[in-house]
Amino acid sequence: MTEVGKSLVFCLKYYPEMESLDGEAKTPISKALPGHPHSASIKEKIDRIRNSAGKEAADLIHLCADAWLHDLKSTTGMELRSPKRAATEKRWGLEVTLGSKPSTHQIGIWINQEGLTPWVWCRGGQAVEKNIQRLFGRVETFGSKAREATSGAVALKTTKIDWNSAKDFTLDAAPIVERTKKTLKAINPEFIAKFRLL
Amino acid sequence: MRTREFIRELDRLTAMVTTPPLVKKLGRVANGPSRESLYLGTVLPKPSSQSHAELAVFFEKVRSGVIDKLGGADWLKKVPAHDPLRCSIGLFETIDLGFRETAHTRMLAWLMDPSKEHGFGDVLVSVFLQKVFRLKSRPRLKEVAIRSEVITSDQKGRLDIHLGGKWSATDRASTRWEVILEAKIHADEGDEQCSRYETEVQVRRDSYSERVLVFLTPDGRPPATNSINADRPWESLSFLDLLALFRPELAALTERPGFYMIRHYMAGVLKNLYRINCGENQAALEGSNIYQISDYLSPAT
Which of these, A8, B242, B274, B301, could form a disulfide with A53 (CB 3.0-4.6 Å)? Predict the structure, then answer.
């Protein structure tokens, strides 16, 4: 069984705590636990888990997206500019730019507490979202005002994951990957051809 | 997003611990690399399964402390049935407007406006004014005018909500007051947006003797484009702060015509902006963010 990484599951199960103790947030662990006898060891654990979770998020995203991106590239012959892996690890998300500069069209996947969500983005703000949704036809989509997203982004159906149900932080990746791949089929060469004209 | 309740509970647990001096010193110096550096090449050893288990025990201890504070195992039963936390339907999400700023600001302007059909009178606006002006008691309002989407003098911007009027209080007899509220959900501030609003209030030279500018966001962050030397500093407020402010008033408003409007609006804010699984399922609520729920139910004074 291919598992979702334990650190990623942990971070999403204890999202409020990890977010509150985020080193980039207002309360680094050393301030949140002043003088706590375990503050050093807790901080070390948090750093390791957070670091590992980023790598595991990138692993999961690549499991879902690599074959899909490969197919898109070979079928369309289009240049797909993927970010460095470190960026995917940091963002827990993949942002692929279509064509050469400037970046006007992007496709990708993000991971958050709800699960994995494929998305597309096009320059043009909210006005362009309806056009993108129209291109998807009967596929279920959400504009930026229905979801927490940048304007111009349209999300596809989220592969929901109940992180709390993972016993010992163990979760089988196979059904998650399978469902996400199924959703990604909507972002196909036919869609991309029309999408790039927006 | 940082939650006050999480930090409070950590502080409480920390205060219960007697710290050996040496460990205290080690704790202070152990700052470690920043998150940014972790992702840009620093290699950390993979955490052991034991690390996950130990940290989980620690976090569960903090969570259970918060649940105890809320009222123990059946805490949701102690929350009044009319409370938006127990309502699973959000007003704006039904029409895909959960994140639209103008939908929120227009709704807030409507809810606080005593002249509207909701029947709340000036209850909500007076608790809001008490908070943003930091008054000891609620002001006795004589006049209130609330408008949303007000075009600025230079025609280049819109004030999300403008509130103006007159109050009387023992120490502030017939004072004219004004509030300018700017709300942001996801969008960034425009170029110099907040400092332009500061200029706006100076240019108009209205006869308001009390004035406050409010920056309303999901995380209660301060504005980034205000003028550092502004005479009128901005009051930062989160949507959760605002809900916690309105919440104690709801019990007296349940029979008013607009009650279900505010109930569904508040439920929607909790659901959309804070991902709280509102409804009657206590486990689902606890699975979302128990700290924010606590911030909402028992805000710090």
Answer: A8
